[in-house]
Known about the structure:
Mean pLDDT: 89
Largest sheet: 5 strands, parallel
Shape: globular
Amino acid sequence: MTASRVLVVEDSPDVRALLVEALRDEGHEVLTAADGLAARAALAPGGAAADVDLVVLDLMLPHVDGSVLLAEIRRAGDVPVLVLSAKDAVYTKVDMLRLGADDYVTKPFDLAELTARIEALLRRSAPRAAAETAPLVHGPLSLDPATARVQLDGAEVVLTATELRLLHLLLASPGQVFSRPRIYEAVWEEPFVGDDAAVKTHVSNLRGKLREAAPALDPIETVWGLGYRLRAL
């Protein structure tokens, strides 16, 4: 994989050093921030990390909580964010995914698994091959993968990288039902291990944004007991 720029936001010096070493061993350029204020400054326009390819974000940070930073990052753009936290409650994970996190890993973590998840996130957010960049249109809904531009009924819809991949999957086969395991394996590019919270939350986020753009359309349909599909528009 092409080397990427990664910002590690982590207040523990030991964990931070471990992540820096592991990511540099993978060939990536690594920037760090030890607290929320430093991360905010680094991510601001013109900051050292303004153009990073991925953020690894701890939640319990000095000065500015990680959840606040996540919301700010998501309002500013679609850079992938992997949340790394000792908070292992399901509701915390779901809350962070709803805020726009692309993945969530709990501490203590297996370093090999964590780096694999980071690589998968970077791979998913990388520019698509030419064969995958043809615009997709389904009635009033369109997606141009080359520009990450989504429109529904004339309104612009701003999506995260994960939401874009999810919509691309559904738009490529309108009417086809996709189970949660199949969605997970296609969008996250990892084997499904039985935790469908990420799929449900990202589908919910995507539906919410599409409904906001065109409340009367609601393009994504839940097929109870089976999964999701793009309805006729």
